[in-house]
Amino acid sequence: MGPQHPSTHGVLRLLVQLEGEIVHNVQPHIGYIHSGIEKMAESLSYPQIGHLTDRMDYLSAHMNNEAVALCVENALQIEVPERVKYIRTIMAELTRLASHQLWWCVMGMDMGALTTFFYGLRDREDILDIFEETCGARLTVNYSIPGGLMFDIHPNFQRDVKAFIKKFKTKLPEYDKLLSGNVIFTERTKGVGYLSREDAIAYGVTGPTARASGFACDLRKHQPYSAYSKVNFNEILSDVGDTYARYQVRMQEMWESMSIIEQLIDNIPEGDYAVKMKGVVKLPEGEFYQRVETARGEFGVFITSDGKKNPYRVKFRSPGFSNLFAINHIAKGWKIADLVAIMSTFDLVIPDIDR
Amino acid sequence: MYDFTTLTKSIHESLSSQYSATTTIAIEWTIVGVAYLLFVALFGLFLVYAERKVCAAFQQRLGPMRVGPWGLLQTIADFIKLLMKELVTPKGVDKFLYNLAPFIVIIVSFLVISVIPFAPGLQTFDFDIGIFFVTAVSSVGVIGILLAGWSSNNKYSLIGAMRSGAQIVSYELSVGLSLITMIILAGTMQISGLVEGQREMWFIFKGHIPAFIAFFVFVIAGTAETNRGPFDLAEAESELTAGFHTEYSGIKFAFFFLAEYINLFIVAGMATTVFLGGWMPLHFGDFAGFNQVMDLIPGLVWFFIKVLGVMFLMMWFKWTFPRLRVDQILNLEWKYLLPINLFNILLMAAVVLLGLHF
Q1: How far is B53 from B46, CA to CA, in rounded Å?
Q2: Neighboring chain B residues of A335 at a CB cutoff of 8 Å
Q3: pTM of the predicted model, to two decimals?
């Protein structure tokens, strides 16, 4: 399957060994769109790295930028204003919502229900409009910079976000009506593609994929950053570990994201949207690591600095990469059609894997 | 109600008064052939347009809009594009079978369409064993798909063909058995006889419970036989990219595409003829006044309203349901539909013997 295949959603190649319809072995071959972001980052200044990271997991663009910004801020021991923390959290949750919406519609499409694709895209458009108004970009949102935000929020931001939440609360039950309860859908996902908690941990699977196997790994809860310590939300866990559980975890997460945004949106503190930084950012010598919870799981930024204005070495821990390699373990013994469904619940974004 | 037999008879008489019997037959067959070609081509184009519009409505889009008023000329433009495309033959294919496959698929569709009564007197063949002919001939279509998949020298195509073989052969049973159920009620296999038998009331009402079950099974199995969603395993675009017709381009692909839509029409047409009264207007036993008002609407209109209704139902399935898996599709047939069907035949026989129908 691939590198050009409709259900790999990008240039991913899966070498699938089949016996009739039954999958015996899946070997992911990656590197078709390897972009060398980590290497490029070594010759860029710290604020510039952020402009590359949103091209990696372009559906979690904001969280990737936030991770770089947080990493640099921690290294420099800068405390950003409360306002920045709140806005970053709201933007992150909006990004998560947009990502999960796209995942949902693509999941339906992969299973042959093309209509879901249009439902998801329709609602995602509202979020992208908010992004566009906030920072000019719709997809590769580049809003967080070391020390704060690129700009302050648009005057309409709060109004638009609240309007979106109100609207989406009526649309999300529609998703359930169309797909979640469908007999064919449940038949195809319940009990299919089991991933145990132990295997999830062993393979380094994170994010909703791991939480569906009962692995409590939500960094927003266990290692809060930005404004996550100020909000009440549940870490969605399921101990079933099948394709349906992975589906349900993401569906529930959308409700939680909306709840987080609702708690923050009216309480954004006044103040600066960034701290004053020097023209050239230089990190002290040493190694710095910061991780955040993106829509796909744990995203980590590891920077080795030798005190110059560009990093000595940068390494990203991308969630898609670790998640992908559990696919052979899960898909073995199931059918090709299940492989497609399983791949869908992994919510792969290929540039996130081919860094 | 206007009977087309008067028209066909007058044509036949005027022709035979001028030409010998053989020439008359030859001319008549040419007319019929051209008429079917035109019908299939135009109705096929319309169906593609209709499906795109229906699909767009389900997906909250507009569908074709640009070419012609309301996008009506879009499918014609697409058809011209398909005609002009290069016919690519990939390396290593079995050339003869590869080129033969689309023709088999489309010829089968043409054959079946010939027994469908569009209106009173507007039917080419009226065999004593009409229903038998339909089930027999429509089962040949799977050979075209199997050949296409096998000869394409492509693994996706091969899997698609094998799936299609397993699927269509299985669902033939359900289609056949649900038709047999209705034959028991009608007491005839002749298609004109079937339609005549529904003069007082359509079979779906006349045979009440067993007829309704048979209709339900027929629509499911019919959808599966046409390879449409949620049973479109053979082409399964997200798994097999396009399955058996991955390697076909241009007009050869268009043949498969057209055949799919003719098959859709055939299944809807058979459902209409056998269950919903074909061209027969809605009649209620002795209500002469009501029946006369209904008779004012021509049979052709009745037929197409019903056919389009059933088609809409099948498009509805396609654009809302996810796709089944191959083992589930066979489970559905062998573990559910077939036993239900066999039981339903007994039920129908009992209903007919005891005179429990209306």
Answers
A1: 10
A2: 325-327
A3: 0.84
